[in-house]
Amino acid sequence: MNHAPTTPYAALGGEAAVRRLVDRFYDLMDELPEAYAVRKLHPDSLDGARQSLFEFLSGWLGGPPLYVQKHGHPRLRMRHLPYAIGPRERDQWMLCMRLALAEEVADEGLRHALGEALQQLADHMINVAPATA
Q1: What is the pLDDT of residues 67-106, one digit of tens each?
Q2: Check whether domain 12-125 has CATH 2.60.120.320, yes or no
Q3: Which has the closest alpha carbon to 91: 122, 53, 50, 112?
Q4: Does the structure show a pLDDT above 70 at 3?
Q5: Which residues form the signal peptide (predicted)?
Q6: Is 105 left (phi over 0), alpha (psi -120 to 50) or beta?
Q7: What is the tens place of the pLDDT at every residue in 46-65?
Q8: Which pairs count as long-range contacts for 71-79, CB under 8 Å and 24+ apart, including other chains?
Q9: pTM, rounded to two decimals
């Protein structure tokens, strides 16, 4: 029996699952003291960030290209240049994302693959040298 290859979007559970992942991610960013540096890069309300990440991840995961339809090419690094993102902010972003993935993605293989791919994206967003202590 031939099965068409499934997208990560479909494997995750589609729109509702992506929304849950994004909501949990930003809830964690809001709640965890360990995420303070990355949280303070965001406005008081995370509503816009939630919507943007949801739209981006939908297309990035192989679902509807909502972000591209609304804003054009993501140009992630360029869009993040106004924010000072160093290894600390990247690590805090990934802490929230890995915890959200652990809670929201039951499939271990999918969770690992998404974590690795998101780590590469997060690494690419670094635009400042690490602070020296």
Answers
A1: 999 999 999 999 999 999 999 999 999 999 999 999 999 9
A2: no
A3: 122
A4: no
A5: none
A6: beta
A7: 999 999 999 999 999 999 99
A8: 76/121, 76/124, 76/125, 77/124, 77/125, 77/127
A9: 0.92
